[in-house]
Amino acid sequence: MPEARLPCAAGAAPGRGRPAFRQEFADFLAFVRRPRLGPRMPRGWHGGQAGAPRHGSQEWLGGLGGPHLLSWVLVLWGINLLVLGPLAASVATASGAERRLDALHLSWFHVVLWAPVIEEMVFRYGLRRPAPALWLLPVLVSAMLMRPSLAAGASVALACGAIAAVLAWRGHRWPWKWLRRYVGAFPLVFHLATLAFAFLHLANFRLGESGWLLLPLLVLPQWACGLVLGWMRVRFGIGASIALHACFNAGPMALLWILQNHAPDLLDG
């Protein structure tokens, strides 16, 4: 989607380095209440030139210096560990749901690379690039059904790269009237994409025969994470949302690795 020069976000001071984390958090809360495609966080938000146009490399890498990734990871871990995680566990017990996946046998490649890249591309790349996303979606959805591997990743990357090259060569973009309609529908699109991302994770459970009304509570942690990831994708770029997703997933993997190697009795209990 073509982007014009956008004004600085409220509270941002061009050329003065990164703002306080509380400014990012306030912007996130405002965004969730009223999702909008603009303004993007200006490049001055992370030390660049404010209002500078963003190109392809900036879409993937330009936002990584802006958001306080570690701060967001800690916030999401805290919310999930102290509030949403225990609630989801209680709902699982009450409804008879059991996890399908054994976390102890998941690979780092699957959890920290494959899942963040594929899920962000499926559910959030199209938030700002709806036209090419429609062409890429069949390949990306197929990737969700594949067994994670380097060979599968290479084939998906080649297929997506070929599609992107053809679209760029043909100068493919939506007509202006379609873009205007999309901008108007964006709040609904954003929240539906977030809900779809959350409900996808119901596939991680063997669902019980009772308590179906409680099942949405099983994926409250993914819903909350999806809101933050969607905000970060829109404000900073797809690279930033993939990085946050990967860092968030890496925490439980690291904890399990520590327990396996240093306190296996806790896992057996």
TrEMBL record:
It comes from the Bacteria. GO terms for molecular function: peptidase activity. Coiled coil: none annotated. InterPro entries: Rce1/LyrA-like_dom (IPR003675). The keyword Hydrolase applies. The chain crosses the membrane at residues 69-94, 106-127, 147-169, 181-200, 212-231, 238-259. Residues 106-250 form the CAAX prenyl protease 2/Lysostaphin resistance protein A-like domain. Keywords: Hydrolase, Membrane, Protease, Transmembrane, Transmembrane helix. GO terms for biological process: proteolysis. This is CAAX prenyl protease-like protein.
